[in-house]
Amino acid sequence: MSRLTRRSFGALIGATSASLATPGLLRAQNAGRLVIIGGGFGGASAARFARINYPEVEVTLVEPWPSFITCPYGNLILGGKRTLPQITHSYDGLRARGVDVVQDRAADIDYTAKTVTLESGSVLDYDKLIVSPGIGLRWDAIEGYDESAAQIFPHAWMGGDGSQISTLRQQLEDMPQGGVVGISIPGNPFRCPPGPYERISMIAHYLKEANPTAKIMAFDAKEGFSKQGLFEDAWGELYGDMIEWIPASGDGQIVRVDVENKLFISEFGEEHRVDVGNVIPPQYAASIVRDTGLADESGWVPVDARTFAAASVSDVHVIGDANIAAPLPKSGYVANSTSKVAVAAALAEVTGRDAPADPVYFNTCYSHGGDDYGFSVVGVYRTTDEGFVETPDSGGISPRGPLSELADNRRLEAGYADAWYESITRDMFS
Ligand SMILES: Cc1cc2nc3c(=O)[nH]c(=O)nc-3n(C[C@H](O)[C@H](O)[C@H](O)COP(=O)(O)OP(=O)(O)OC[C@H]3O[C@@H](n4cnc5c(N)ncnc54)[C@H](O)[C@@H]3O)c2cc1C
User: Fold this and answer.
1) Rounded CA gap, 155 and 283, in Å?
2) Do 263 and 308 reside in the same domain of the chain?
3) Ligand 1 centroid to 28 CA: how many Å?
4) What CATH number has the domain bearing residue 340?
5) What pLDDT shows up at residue 31?
6) Is 3 helix (H, G, I), strand (E, B) or coil?
7) CB-defined site of ligand 1, < 6 Å
8) pLDDT tens track for 345-399
C-alpha cells in the first residue's frame, strides 16, 4: 500500500508552489477535508453543494466509473424514448468547480485513523466523511441468480457502465413476435419503489409498436405497490391486456431462476417460461458500508434523522439509498436533497457555521406511463426524536380518472418529469 497519502502529496505541492496559489486555494489548505465516497445522486450533489457553499473546505469525491449513468430515465431507454448518451454525465463540471474527483474505489475505511484506503492503495485522510455508495444486490436471495446469470437475465438496476440496461433493450428488440417478458420484483425496502412499474410501462410502450402480441408477466414479491392505481389505469388505457401483474399471494414470488432454460420458478414451485427475463433482486447497502461495520443486521445503515450521522461512528454521514430513512423512499430526489443537510451538518464543526436545526425533507417521484403520460407522488417529512416522520396532510398524488378528462394533466406531468431530470442532473454535475 502506498504510504504517501493524497494529503501529504497535496502538502508537498503546496510547499513548493505556495507563492503561486490563489487565495481560494490557500483557504482550502487551511480548512477541513471532506471526502465523499460515491459520485451518484447523493455523492455528486454533496460535492457540488459543499464546493459552492463551503469554499474553504477541500472536497474529494471517490468514484470508480469515469462518468455517471443515471438509473432515473434508464427505463426510457427501454421505451425507446432516450439513448444511453442522454443519461450519461461527466464529472468535468465538478472538477471545474475544484472538486478533486478521484477515479478509484474505496476499499476500506479506518474510522479511528480517519482514513479511506482506495483499491489502488492510495490513502485519503478526512476530517469529515460522507458515504453515498448506493445499493448492493443480494446475489444469495434468488437461487441461480448470480453475476453471470445477470448477463442473461439482466437486472438493469444500477448504472455502472450502462451494459445492463443496453443488454435488456437489445433482448427486447431481439425477442420473437408474441414472446413473453418476465420481470421479477423484490419486496421492500428497495431502490425506487415505483421504478419496476415504470419499467413495465416503458417496455409495454416499446412492444406496443414493435411486438404487439407480446406479453409482460410481472412477478411481484409484494401485495401492492407505489402509485398502483395510476399505473393500472395507464396499463389498461394504453396497453390493453399486454401486462399481467402477479402479487405474491397469486404466485408472484420468484425464488429460483434457470437461465439456461429461461425459467422463473415461484415459491409455489410453478415454472414460468420467459423469452426475456429482467430480475430485480432484493437489495442491501453497497459493500463498502457493510464490510466496514456501518450497516446493521438489516444490511442498511442507521443514521441520525437530523444530520445523517452514522449511528455507530463519529464524523461519518451516510446518505442516499444506503441508509435507513423510511418513510423517505430510496430515491434520487431524496439522495440529492438530503445530501445538502448532511453536508451542512458535517461541516458545521469544521467551519464554525450553524448546522440545520429542524430540517424538512421532500420527495417527488415522477413516472412515465407512456408518451406524454406522466404522474407523480409527493411526500413531505420532518424529524422527531423518534426519527423521520411524514408530515400529516401534506404531499399528494396525481388525480385518477379517464384519460379523456386527464390528458392535459398527464402531458404536463410528463413535461415536469423531464424538467426535474434536467434540473437535478445540473444540480449534481454542472
Ligand atoms: C430504473 C430506476 C429508475 C429510477 N427512477 C428514479 C426517478 O425517477 N426519480 C428518483 O428520484 N429516483 C429514481 N431512481 C432511484 C435512484 O436511482 C436512487 O435512489 C439514487 O441513485 C440513490 O443515490 P445514491 O447516491 O444512494 O446511489 P447512486 O446514485 O447509485 O450512487 C452511488 C455511487 O457510488 C459508487 N460506489 C459504490 N461503491 C463505491 C465504493 N466502494 N467506492 C467509491 N464509489 C462507490 C457507485 O459507482 C455509484 O456511482 C431510480 C432507480 C432505478 C433503478
Assistant:
1) 11
2) no
3) 29
4) 3.50.50.60
5) 80
6) coil
7) 37-43, 62-65, 68, 71-72, 74-75, 105-106, 132-134, 157, 191-192, 195, 199, 286, 288, 320-322, 330-333, 335, 365-366
8) 999 999 999 999 999 999 999 999 999 999 999 999 999 988 999 999 999 999 9
